[in-house]
Structure to design on (723 residues):
């Protein structure tokens, strides 16, 4: 089963290396990983999708919490959350096919972001299922290149997994 | 006042109460060594950086205070790696400082450059590359705090040469920035109640105690708990000495080379109280058949150990000492019954023994070291047969008296660890029990012992083999002794060449005299015990088997 973890980390050098290294040496599989700064410039948020059963997830979260630079780990899989991913796809598009592809883009509320002599580059955001359907629809035209950001997620409503409610440990 | 980065570093280390550093100088640490030159810190110059890391480790284990080592960049730093990994596996508080090439040439494959922060990431609790002189004081403070709190472990601090060389107006460290580090936890009262209920209901309880009891200093609490509920106590390698080995409730060590009665007790118990342990594979044997009839209470400071290797019925996350104190307030004393009698019968029926045959046996040597030191020495070991015989024939009764590489199994640990222990405890008798293979992995540290007049006694159990590997080849590889026979130097002459005393023993009747002589000399002594070559460590649980299925 896939789990979505949101991990708040100190924005210090090497923190990505520490997290990724932990996954690889303990044999946990990362399905996707997205990292970026949060509302607090000293804190970054990683959204990690991991595959594993409850026991594996328990180990993943506990081992992550042991890293000094990791501030908070939340497994939001069972919660209500909004998840999005952005994909850029460059597809083969002869002038005759452009119309069809633009219709597909409309259906998925994707945007054309570049136009080449024989290619179109599209941008689309959405959840996993939508991104997958979008990709499948473009496949017959020939996908030359495709890149995904990995999933990012936030809890719905007034719940939050943020850093503001964490007190500093006094030395 | 203007100070160099090196001076700020040494000042900050002094503020942590450190009195000794084990180290080895080099180009990238010149500014730090310059600051050490007239400081109040004692610096022990080892003969190899690995020796410095192990000595700091031995110092920490003997004293309970953090060990500190220092090395230069590149090869100096990489030579620390085994020592850091060793401290990590055994949860020893160690702070390792390394020099690094200047920030202007960092990442350019400069002379003696190695990414030591990257290399040691999987084997440190945390690490720092200091890129701003203003961070040094804060980083040192954090490093010691992290190394010594929660589950202890090694922290590495890498300092580029331009940072340690620069001068600034010295300021006190800024506030620590450890948002994600919360070492102190206590179990909920619900969990404590569940544990107390299990203990009250248990008819055949066993306590399985490990290194966490030592780290936490929970010796009296453990003794009180065991006597209150009359639970026999078995310890791991790391736990030896945390419960007195001569106590009627003591079962000695469990696991692959544990006592039969400890392993039988694990197989038959209905409640296992695991204190400061991590269910290592050398302890559990076949994991599916470990303590098959028991409910398990697991108390450890590291939440990630709960359920890592075995299913746990009641996890208790917290400091062993604090939590035992909370737990016993909910417990009633138990009366002896059939279980205590059964354990007593096992102990009578299956003692650890060896056969005497007129030749010098390794077990005899260790027994006699026990007698002559009255069980009061600090014993360090290397890794292999001699290590296991030490656990069987030296009866450890005091915490921090047995210092051995448990998790990593590092040959070459014992001699530098003995040096560290002797520095920490100048009045103690320190014995390094070694194998002829292991001792040669850090034999150069004899020079350190002689240099600082540290009277460590080195007992080499010399069988001319890498004995434990040979034993496995005998049992499991059809006696094909592939590259396990050793051609050794003359250890007596070698000792003398280093300026130590060398003694050779080949007969059983010579052991006592040689040990007396070694004890009387206030110098490092090497005793070469030439023992029966193919003696085996028994009993033994074959790898992958259940604990009840012992050979021998």
């Amino acid at each position: 089963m896939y789990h979505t973890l949101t991990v708040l980390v100190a924005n210090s050098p090497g923190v990505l290396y520490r997290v990724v290294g932990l996954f690889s040496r303990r044999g946990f599989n990362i399905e996707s990983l997205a990292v970026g700064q949060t509302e607090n410039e000293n804190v970054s948020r990683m959204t990690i999708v991991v595959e594993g059963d409850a026991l594996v997830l328990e180990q993943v979260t506990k081992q992550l919490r042991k890293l000094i630079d990791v501030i908070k780990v939340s497994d939001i899989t069972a919660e209500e959350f909004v998840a999005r991913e952005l994909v850029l796809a460059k597809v083969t598009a002869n002038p005759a096919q452009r119309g069809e592809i633009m219709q597909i883009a409309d259906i998925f509320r994707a945007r054309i972001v570049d136009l080449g002599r024989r290619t179109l580059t599209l941008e689309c955001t959405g959840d996993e299922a939508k991104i997958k359907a979008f990709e499948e629809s473009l496949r017959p035209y020939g996908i030359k290149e495709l890149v995904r950001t990995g999933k990012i997620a936030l809890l719905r409503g007034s719940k939050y997994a943020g850093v503001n409610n964490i007190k500093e440990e006094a030395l | 006042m203007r100070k160099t980065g090196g001076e700020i570093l040494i000042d900050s280390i002094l503020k942590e109460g450190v009195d000794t550093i084990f180290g080895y100088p080099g180009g990238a640490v010149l500014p730090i060594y310059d600051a050490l030159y007239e400081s109040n810190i004692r610096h022990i110059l080892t003969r190899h950086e690995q020796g410095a890391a192990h000595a700091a480790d031995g110092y920490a284990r003997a004293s309970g205070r953090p060990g500190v080592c220092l090395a230069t960049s590149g090869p100096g730093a990489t030579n620390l790696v085994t020592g850091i990994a060793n401290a990590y596996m055994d949860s020893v508080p160690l702070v390792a400082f390394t020099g690094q090439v200047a920030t202007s040439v960092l990442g350019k494959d400069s002379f003696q450059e190695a990414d030591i922060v990257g290399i040691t990431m999987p084997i440190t609790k945390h690490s720092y590359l200091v890129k701003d002189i203003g961070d040094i004081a804060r980083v040192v403070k954090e490093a010691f705090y992290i190394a010594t709190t929660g589950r202890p472990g090694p922290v590495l601090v890498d300092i580029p040469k331009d940072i340690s060389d620069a001068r600034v107006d010295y300021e006190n460290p800024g506030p620590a920035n450890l948002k994600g580090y919360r070492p102190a936890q206590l179990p909920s009262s619900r969990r404590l109640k569940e544990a107390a209920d299990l203990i009250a209901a248990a008819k055949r309880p066993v306590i399985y105690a490990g290194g966490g009891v030592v780290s936490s200093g929970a010796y009296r609490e453990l003794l009180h708990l065991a006597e209150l509920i009359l639970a026999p106590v078995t310890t791991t390698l790391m736990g030896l000495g945390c419960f007195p080995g001569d106590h009627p409730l003591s079962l000695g060590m469990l696991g692959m080379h544990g006592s039969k009665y400890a392993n039988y007790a694990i197989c038959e118990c209905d409640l296992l109280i695991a204190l400061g342990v991590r269910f290592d594979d050398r302890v559990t044997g076949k994991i599916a058949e470990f303590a098959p009839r028991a409910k398990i209470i697991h108390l450890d400071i590291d939440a990630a150990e709960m359920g890592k290797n075995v299913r746990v019925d009641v996890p208790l996350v917290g400091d062993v000492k604090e939590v035992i104190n909370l737990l016993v307030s909910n417990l009633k004393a138990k009366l002896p019954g059939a279980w205590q009698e059964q354990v007593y019968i096992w102990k009578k029926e299956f003692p650890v023994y060896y056969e005497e045959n007129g030749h010098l046996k390794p077990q005899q040597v260790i027994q006699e070291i026990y007698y002559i030191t009255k069980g009061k020495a600090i014993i360090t070991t290397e890794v292999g047969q001699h290590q296991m015989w030490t656990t069987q024939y030296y009866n450890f009764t005091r915490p921090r008296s047995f210092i051995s590489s448990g998790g990593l199994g590092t040959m070459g640990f014992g001699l530098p660890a003995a040096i560290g222990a002797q520095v920490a405890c100048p009045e103690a008798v320190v014995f390094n029990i070694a194998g002829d293979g292991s001792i040669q992995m850090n034999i150069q540290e004899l020079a350190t012992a002689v240099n600082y007049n540290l009277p460590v006694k080195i007992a080499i159990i010399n069988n001319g083999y890498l004995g434990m590997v040979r034993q496995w080849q005998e049992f499991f590889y059809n006696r094909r002794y592939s590259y396990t026979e050793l051609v050794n130097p003359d250890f007596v002459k070698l000792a003398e060449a280093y300026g130590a005393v060398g003694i050779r023993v080949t007969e059983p009747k010579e052991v006592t005299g040689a040990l007396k002589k070694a004890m009387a000399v206030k110098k490092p002594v090497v005793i070469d015990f030439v023992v029966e070559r193919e003696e085996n460590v028994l009993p033994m649980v074959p790898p992958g088997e259940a604990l009840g299925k012992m050979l021998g």
Q: What stands out?
A: The mean pLDDT of chain B is 97. The CA atoms of residues 254 and 545 of chain B lie 14 Å apart. The radius of gyration of chain B is 24 Å. DSSP finds 21 helices and 20 strands in chain B.
